[in-house]
Write a structure and sequence with these properties.
2,3-Dihydroxybiphenyl 1,2-Dioxygenase, domain 1, 8-stranded mixed barrel, 4 helices, about 25% helix, globular
Length: about 170
């Protein structure tokens, strides 16, 4: 396998815990990350292993210093990188999010390295895509080709962490 060049800065550490509430408590009370902004989302237009899927997920995002921490709970049984992870009994780091600046070059490098793209959605700037093996043995890579509004949202979350007084750890 060939080495994959870096296509942007590491943006986030993401987990798919068995117990989202327990994970939120750990990250806010023990580690000091937060506040976390919890949203219930429907992911439409995604593909998993080339097949179209629609996902219902709870996503909690917060910051720990300059590092974004994402906690994901899939609330449907649609096959995905998240259900494959949980069904394999995996815990710990699910994926590392990369602020991808060149989706086309990243996809080409992944193909050369024989690292499959297993889940993806099209979008402005190249969309979002996951590469690696969803059942392990290591964390996957998520390439996020961010829009300006997504960058603004993440900046708001980072600022919330900088000014957080410890109250309302989950919003």
């Amino acid at each position: 396998m060939r080495r994959i060049p870096q296509f942007g800065d590491v943006l986030q550490l993401a987990y798919v815990p068995a117990d989202l509430d327990g994970a939120l408590k750990y990250w806010t009370e023990t580690v000091g990350a937060g506040p976390f902004f919890l949203r219930q989302l429907v992911f439409k237009g995604w593909r998993y292993l080339g097949e179209p899927i629609e996902l219902n997920v709870d996503v909690a995002i917060g910051y720990w210093g300059e590092v974004q921490v994402e906690l994901i709970r899939q609330t449907c049984r649609t096959p995905s990188v998240y259900t494959a992870w949980r069904d394999a009994g995996r815990e710990g780091l699910h994926h590392i999010g990369i602020d991808c600046r060149d989706a086309q070059a990243a996809r080409a490098a992944l193909a050369r390295a024989q690292m499959p793209i297993v889940q993806e959605v099209d979008g402005p700037n190249g969309g979002i895509f996951y590469a690696g093996e969803p059942r392990g043995p290591d964390a996957m890579l998520e390439f996020l080709c961010l829009t300006d509004s997504q960058k603004d949202y993440f900046a708001m979350l980072r600022e919330a962490h900088r000014t957080w007084d410890g109250e309302k750890p989950v919003r």
